[in-house]
Amino acid sequence: MKRIVFMTIILLLFAVSFISCSVIPDIFTINKLPEKVDEKFSAADDGDFFFAISVSGGGSRAAVWTSSVLYELYKEVKLPDGRSVLDEVDYISCVSGGSLASAYYCMRKPVVDTREKKEYDIFFDNYTEDMRRNFEKEIVSIYKPWQWKRVFLKATDKGVILQRVFDRMLTERGTKNFRDLHERQLKVQCPTIIINGTVMDNGSKFLFTTLRRSDFLFNTFSKTEVPEETAAAWEYILPVKEEEGAMFAGDIGQSIGNMRVSRAVMGSASIPLLFGPIIIEGETKKMPGKMTYFHINDGGIADNLGLETVIQLMLNRFSDPNKRYRGGLVLIIDAGHLIDPKDSTCSIEEFTTGKILGRSLDIFDYRHKYFIYYNILLLQQNPAFRNVRFVYLSPYLPYLKDKDNGNDEDNCSDKDNDKDKDNGEKELKKIGTRFKIDPKSAKLLDDLAKEVVGDMKETILLNFEGKDAPRK
């Protein structure tokens, strides 16, 4: 009997390995290089105030959190003329699940300003509902009974199918590619979007955007500023090589204008080993004529906040001698988890294999955030950036506020008078990063967004007006 079971398993594994080859033609899997392009998209005018939003990754958790926060900003944070502060946003830099929510907002938001309440109420009803969709289930629903082999698709093929799911939702208003999106941007109908991916081949960021390389400042040091004793390391460490710091579609001869936004979202939202990466064929300046494949994966690998990209854009803008900014505001919409030591100190058996992997990713994300925030503190010591404010919007803020007020003890027991908050935080920590979310978790994120934006409303408005606002 054991032998029969063993042979059955072996045959099943053989069958899976045999049929798991790609069943989707390369024309869909690979974004091939049609012809050399040199597109010159002009950046929209951002006026005298730099206003950007960075949106973190995190699957449907990030998508729902982003849509809920944007809805509260639309509803609660109003300018003196009755418009929402969202009407003034110049740029959105986004990652992974946050890219899905950001692309939806830019592609489908009404073309009028937010004083047209009826249109925006309908839009946000659809927006928040669509971000709650079970995208993983929709992948399965595409399969027909006679296509049973697709159950064993490769991760890259599954990525193509997920892109199709995204595409059907994103293109409902007619906007399909980055050229369409650029027309909306120039008409000030939506912010300029920057979708962040990670090039697995060389470790660089891949920026899907109509902005150009010259719009960003990637190297902030010149060789003459480097101490002599470290000059030998200069060529290897300090100056990020052009193609390793960030890559753009134009760097490999691709047309960003012709690229579907859904493909960029899929690249940014790829989950290693599950969905993606997307594959783009092109040629670099160093190797003209030689076709190379670039594998674009989860943008969160390089920067799960999309904040580094915002800072590099801001550095370029503020160094422009022809521009003079009165200040800037960056809203950081972060759906990432925080690290609570109590998660492990209550039991010696707390860290299972799965939790070790999850904990490792959380620590990696946390350390990267720490480095970015440390750089922000250093940046604000420079007089040129003293009027730039960063406002952090995380679902954990209400729980951190209670702890700062002394409503938390360093032990493993719950307090009777704080059970609701404690249970809410526990439920928040359980929300994963897959592309599906249950109604209870979505409702929790909705409620937290209302509380967080309500608490930060005054700070956002004061900072936007260029006044001295209290730091929170």
Topology:
Blueprint: H1 2-19, H2 26-29, E1 30-31, E2 49-55, H3 59-76, E3 91-95, H4 96-108, H5 117-130, H6 135-142, H7 155-170, H8 178-186, E4 192-199, E5 205-208, H9 231-234, H10 242-245, E6 246-247, H11 261-269, E7 278-282, E8 292-297, H12 300-303, H13 307-318, E9 327-333, H14 342-345, H15 353-379, E10 388-393, H16 397-404, H17 419-430, H18 439-464
Parallel strand pairs: 1-7, 2-3, 2-9, 3-4, 5-6, 9-10
Antiparallel strand pairs: 4-5, 4-8, 7-8
Helix pairs in contact: 3-4, 3-18, 4-11, 6-7, 7-11
Structure notes:
InterPro entries: Acyl_Trfase/lysoPLipase, PNPLA_dom. Pfam families: Patatin. Residues 54-310 form the PNPLA domain. This is Patatin-like phospholipase family protein. The chain is of the alpha/beta class and 472 residues long. The protein contains 18 helices and 10 strands. The chain has helices at residues 2-19, 26-29, 59-76, 96-108, 117-130, 135-142, 155-170, 178-186, 231-234, 242-245, 261-269, 300-303, 307-318, 342-345, 353-379, 397-404, 419-430, 439-464, and strands at 30-31, 49-55, 91-95, 192-199, 205-208, 246-247, 278-282, 292-297, 327-333, 388-393. Strands 1, 2, 3, 4, 5, 6, 7, 8, 9 and 10 form a 10-stranded mixed β-sheet that branches. α3 packs across α4 (96-108) and α3 (59-76) packs across α18. The model is unreliable at 5-23, 222-226, 230-240 and 467-472 (pLDDT under 50).
